[in-house]
């Protein structure tokens, strides 16, 4: 009897609907798995099509095409490998299932389907897929073969495999519980699980705990990178045996394929099942698909030991890596020559510009010279990457960033030397192209036109405060758009999550842009990330496992100021306009993550150490201000540039937080606050 198994789990950076690209990555992963001596390779959920194909999953002709590609792929699986590939299965009855096919030498061994569709947070799977009912199984005709489908166990030469597809593992009634009764040895989880702060810990818990409680080997394979524009998938594949992690991938990698593998002890897991078994339900056998002649005992007892430490990423590093990887993928996948940023010398735009630079610093350190060079060539930069990694940072600053990041300081009459100097210092640190121009004449021109309208009074700060603020933010937009057009760059919108929640931003002014890299990061965190970048710096890893910190000291000029919009002639701070950021972010979390009512938010806020010293009247005033702005400005959130999901919540109405544009303004709830 076979007692060990060498398993591999690969992450791939897919492009939705790009079957050729995705098949290319799958082939790379299969070759790497063979090289690692793996007998079974697990790939992520919907790895053939990409996870985020959205309403393309409704197109039956395309789904037929996908099936043809799957059949062709089955003929290309290396002889010694069994590969599991995620794909949308168009069932003869018309439903589409989120499925996974087990492929081996020219055959589709069988198909398992997702039972629990993801429908919280950014997920809307039940729009496209039907959930497969537990305990149901059948077979269908596919490429001239009869293929077993459904809630299946695959017995390959005496080793039993079962599937939980992503969300299946996150719920109380996880299929693994019933697969345990059916005596599986290996539980495979193909996933498309996007990054959110604190989430990886949960994944690790259910992989490890699944292995311990069910007495099985658990393998987990997640997508990697910014696949479809919003979510960034963090990879972080795992293999657990006997309740311990034996392999775990570094997360948020810049390469397109990442693979881990481990040889696991099947006997040890079986013993665990014998000890814990309390089997009461009747054993089913018909659902077991028996396959012979693929797996044989190997003379390999080099069993992977439990990991002594996990691949940890601290919270700041994880948020910065996620946004940098997102920007890297946007540049690659849009084939544009980098980014244009209107750089104010303030916290938000400084972080956005730094992320552009860091996406190259990470890529230059982590990719081979050839891969990095190819990525640059694809956006039109014919450069030779230095072989020596230590020389690459200075080189990206001198040769790459001047071409891929253009920054413009656009001073008005309300701007200060402090912000102008800070913007210049940051641009210099990053190697960005930097221009300083004034918007005063443009503002004046608009003001004179509006003041000259029939029967109009001249504009004044006493009567026209918001009008005069907003025109400054708006006249900054056409110039930086023009730079983006001319240089074929993506314009970066610099709004953060806190501002987006309350609409503290000028529509068609500072909201202008294609991509909002910090749109999923709260202001409180933006300030912490900038401090981290200034004083500690991100971790850059060399080839031989050594790493170095890379601080950006020029951010000191930004971090030493209090956030100000500089839109009024008198001193203005964002916190005086709104409320202290930590309080605003706490209200957001209580209201939008925990779904408390305004009164519930008030009760919790009153007990929070954050509000020590503030009386209840003040708290009521802040909560009213927050919700009034929140309710009024849904229309703004509907029009924000696409942003990455980073905090556990998001303001994005398309992928996360639904709220009516016209609404009650919560008048009743806010009036009764006490
Ligand atoms: N009740 C309502 N429901 C829905 N829509 C409503 C509305 N009342 C006005 N509107 C519409 O909204 C428009 C106003 O929206 P908009 O022009 O965007 O401007 P608005 O929201 O009035 O003001 C922008 C705010 O953002 C702040 N800001 C701007 C720029 C940068 C920064 C910074 O932090 O640096 C801060 C600025 O200090 C100000 O408080 C009105 O002209 C009207 O069309
Ligand atoms: N003087 C300026 N020059 C260029 N761009 C500016 C200027 N002032 C504002 N902007 C643009 O408008 C955006 C919004 O301004 P805002 O003041 O909210 O952001 P910030 O200055 O980056 O950060 P902070 O809010 O911490 O001051 C900026 O991020 C920037 O893109
Ligand atoms: N693809 C999925 O099923 C994703 C759902 C899961 N809870 C996650 O976000 O990781």
From TrEMBL:
Positions contributing to ATP binding: 494
InterPro entries (alphabetical): C-N_Hydrolase, C-N_Hydrolase_sf, Gln-dep_NAD_synthase, NAD/GMP_synthase, NAD_synthase, Rossmann-like_a/b/a_fold
Reaction catalysed by this enzyme: deamido-NAD(+) + L-glutamine + ATP + H2O = L-glutamate + AMP + diphosphate + NAD(+) + H(+)
One Pfam short name: CN_hydrolase
A single MF term (Gene Ontology): NAD+ synthase activity
Domain CN hydrolase: 5-266
EC number per UniProt: 6.3.5.1
Binding residues annotated for L-glutamine, in chain numbering: 193, 199
HAMAP family named in the record: NadE_glutamine_dep (MF_02090)
Functional summary from the UniProt entry: Catalyzes the ATP-dependent amidation of deamido-NAD to form NAD. Uses L-glutamine as a nitrogen source.
Record's protein name: Glutamine-dependent NAD(+) synthetase
Organism in which the protein naturally occurs: Corallincola platygyrae
Name of the gene encoding the protein in the UniProt record: nadE
